[in-house]
Structure formats: structure tokens, C-alpha cells
Amino acid sequence: MVMQNLLAGVASEDTLEAARLLLADIRTALQRPNFQAAASTPVSGSRTTSGATAAFTPEPGRDMLVQLTGDWAGSVQLERSLDEGVTWCATTLNNSAWALYTRNVSEAPVTPSSTSERFRLNATLVSGTLNFLMKQ
């Protein structure tokens, strides 16, 4: 249905998001023809108040996936630590905010490169319930 809508020129935000997710899945499958499950342990949960999630310890060299769902208002920033969780900074790209979310998403924002990297989500919630998942 996604492809039919795109070919028909019906490009709603939902259709474009579904197409982007489909292309990301295809890209991931093509990069890993001999797929092996990640050794990392997913971090998931729900929040109704502002604050940071538990840290996610990724496996280097594999895309990290972030999924945010629920009926919530506010913002969520992906933060990275390069020293095993001692110091945290917002993720940036060319000194601009990166992986700063204000709505539900499912994407692969980073590919960790070091065993000392950790990631967490720092939420500033105005209302609602935020469900989150970080995994590989």
C-alpha cells in the first residue's frame, strides 16, 4: 500500500514515514546478508515525567535503533557518553542538534564505533506517556 500511494502521488506524512522505514529496513538487510542478532541488551520502558532513561550499551559497528511511541507532548534528546556513562552530552552533527524528537519515531540515528559509548534518552515531558525502546 505504501508503494501504491507513492506511485499514485499520494505523499502524506504517514506514507513518507512508512516508505522511509521500509527503505531503512532494506538498507539494513543488504548490509548484513549473514545477519547475527546483536549481543546488546535493549532498553525499554515508559515515562510520564521528565528525566533520563537508563543507559543503553550498544555493540560497536551496528546501527542503533530508537523507537518512541505513545500519546505525549514535549521533547526527547538522544544523549551520548564516550566514557561509559560518566559524562553525557546531547548528540550533535556539525554542531547542530541531532536526534531531538518532538513526536513518535522509529529510526536508526547513530552507528556506535566504540565499546565505551553509551546512549540514553533525556525527556522533557509536558504531558502524556512516552514509551521508548533503544536496541540494535
Kindly summarize this structure in a few lines:
The chain has 136 residues and is of the alpha+beta class. Helix content is 18%, strand content 42%.
The averaged pLDDT comes out at 88
β-sheet strand percentage: 35-45%
Quick one: overall form? globular
CATH architecture of the largest domain: Sandwich
Uncertain regions spanning at least 5 consecutive residues: none
Return the structural class: alpha+beta
Whole-number tally of structural domains: 2
Specify the oligomeric state: single chain
Give the termini distance in whole angstroms.
Answer: 27 Å
CATH class membership of the largest domain? Mainly Beta
Succession of helices and strands: HHEEEEEEEEE
Helix content: 10-25%
Would you report the number of β strands?
Answer: 9
The major sheet is characterized as: 7 strands, antiparallel
- CATH topology name of the largest domain, in short, is Jelly Rolls
Number of helical segments? 2
Radius of gyration: 16 Å
Offer a few descriptive terms.
136 residues, 7-stranded antiparallel beta sheet, globular, alpha+beta, Jelly Rolls, two-stranded antiparallel sheet
Task: Give a verbal description of the structure.
With 136 residues, the protein is of the alpha+beta class. It has two domains: 1-35; 36-135, Jelly Rolls. It contains two helices and nine strands. It has helices at 2-7, 13-31; strands at residues 43-47, 51-52, 64-81, 89-90, 92-93, 96-97, 100-101, 105-110, 118-135. Strands 1, 2, 3, 4, 7, 8 and 9 form a seven-stranded antiparallel β-sheet that branches. Strand 5 (92-93) and strand 6 (96-97) form a beta hairpin. It starts with a helix and ends with a strand.
